[in-house]
Amino acid sequence: MKTTNYLNKTRLLTAALLLSGVSVLSAHATPKPKFIKEGKWRGEFTVSESKVPFNFELKGKDAEHAVFTLINGSRRDNFHVKSIGTDSVYIKMNTYDAALVAKIEDDGSLSGEYRSLVPGFRGNSLPFTAEYGKTYRFVEPGKDVAPKADLTGKWEIKTYSKEAVPASIALLKQKGNKLTGVVMTVVGDTRELEGTVQGDEFALSGFTGPSPFIIKGKINADGSISGEEGFGIYKNLKFDAAKKAEVELPDPYKLTFLKEGYKKLDFSFPGIDGKQVSLSDAKYKGKVVIVEIIGTWCPNCTDQTVFLSPWFNKNHQRGVEAIALGFEQKDSLEYAKYTLGKLKEKYEINYDIAFGGLADKKLVSQKLPALNKFIAFPTTIIIDRKGDVREIYTGYTGTVTGKYHEDYEKKFNKLLDELIAEPAPETAAVVEPAAHQGN
Known about the structure:
Blueprint: H1 2-29, E1 39-47, E2 50-59, E3 67-72, E4 75-79, E5 82-84, E6 88-92, E7 98-104, E8 110-116, E9 125-132, E10 153-160, E11 168-175, E12 178-185, E13 188-189, E14 193-198, E15 201-206, E16 213-219, E17 225-230, E18 236-243, E19 268-270, E20 276-278, E21 288-294, H2 299-315, E22 320-328, H3 333-346, E23 352-358, H4 361-367, E24 379-383, E25 389-394, H5 403-421
């Protein structure tokens, strides 16, 4: 009996030791997942042979709670983080079909790439690395060189290219070595840029989710500047610029207009909810209608949506409708339902969203033949209660442009107030929704 008890105890002890060993081996076989360290970081993209710096901050100790924030001067853009395996992360650039994919190295640094997610464009990528705890952008603390000029002011830019390039203006602010600003064109702006002036050299960069942007150049003896603009995975252009307080871009209200003989716009495109969207639909009769030509790949279109969506939610019941007409990077309704659906969800869009086709300016002109030409994503077309086009605004002027954006907002509101106050035609069908009729 005693021998039997001893054998049973021995077997139990052996089993316990074996299980303990398995647990130890399992612990070694499955290491604890790594995650990005909380705090501020400095990253660098490699574009051709040059480096494009960017700054970001990570808050949250795991993917479930983390917020990844890109920093550009006073601008902040937030993104969610997903863990991949035990040592990598995936950061989708919100509504832009691109992502940062990175490995967390043993020393805690990041190495990876900015990757296009558009089907057929997946070869487009930019490698990057990032280091924790570094908050500078171009120049390490203590290594600044006294600037030889103050670049604060408005600059007229002349860009050199074999293809036609829109006129552009830079609005710059300098405080000591720190330089911030924006480049404006008739098709939109670069969003806020951040950089430095060192001696007779300057540099600005920006990364807000779409492909990164950089400007680098020299201050010439006569006070002018010369340099190169880099558009991430797209192209580089050389430029000269001179400070000129009175310079202005062409009037964005006079660039796109209806051809002679046209008063109205007409189209019919598939909505992302499966229904066809047309200005002849009953819901638009007798209403003021805002038609916004956009693309989810276009940062200025996103900025315009950030303005229009809450404006529409506030003013819809006054007799206003809106349509976002999206032209995407792939000519596929299914793909557009995904990309435009993400836009709708993130920015709480309660107006109709339709798919126009591939993001190509010539194609837009063909599909909207009443327009003299199509110049820019976004383009805003405002239609009165009679169905007549009253105004077309080319491009978008973001908040970083200061007075330019304020003027845009004032004129937009003034015009919409006037059109809303006009009586609806007696023949117009009255369709009053119980709630938003948008998608």
